[in-house]
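DM between two lab members

TW: hey, do you still have the non-specific serine/threonine protein kinase entry open?
JB: yeah, one sec
JB: this one, 260 aa:
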Amino acid sequence: PYRVGYYHMEKTIGKGNFAVVKLATHITTKSKVAIKIIQKTRLDDECVRKILQEINIMKMLKHPHIIRLYQVMQTEKLIYLVTEYASGGEIFDHIVAHGRMNEKEARKKFKQIVSAVSYCHKMNVVHRDLKAENLLLDSGLNVKVADFGFSNISKPGELLRTHCGSPPYAAPELFEGKEYDGPKVDIWSLGIVLYVLVVGSLPFDGKTLQELRSSILAGKFRVPFFMSTECEKLIRRLLCTDVSKRISMKDIISHEWMKL
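TW: and the structure you got?
JB:
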């Protein structure tokens, strides 16, 4: 295997449009990392700016439930991002393989996700792309929030304009094309994530983007018989179409369901 810095490069564990992610092992400590290799030559200035923004944001964030950025290396044509490796893969794949989680397991995962997102918001970072595919698991099945490619710095009270993220996880205000409060769209996405953990499917769906949009704007979703009342109450407060009534981070943390 070839070397990059102090790392032996191994198998490919992910592929994007202009990047590839490889598993690598530190030559002396033998610890495993994930190295994202980005081809600068295939990027325009705007993309490079976005990647540098993602790097700057990741450098700021040090939290047990957020993928750590250890090192950045550059050559003329490539950028190497050395990050923590989460060997358990995506929560999305975990649910596809094992089905929905019982509420005790879902609560443990959700608390970890909430602590990571709450920390981001305290650091004035909004993630804007929270979804089951961007939540990774380590060998102990602890959650690691990943992929800050759409994240942004947002001071309290500041409204954002750029519409990002994955449509099934997007808050209604994003579909209305308005300026929006960054943390509130993350909180909506947390509602989708919690639903996915507990139910094993998405609350809002549609054959087309148009159908999905009307489903999200209507804010109506199926509550299966096995969902506890407290869990339903929390999800309803997270997936509140009225931004001003949507639950705050503080109230998520102190919610009854979170204490069970």
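TW: got it. The longest helix spans residues 103-122. The chain has a mean pLDDT of 96.
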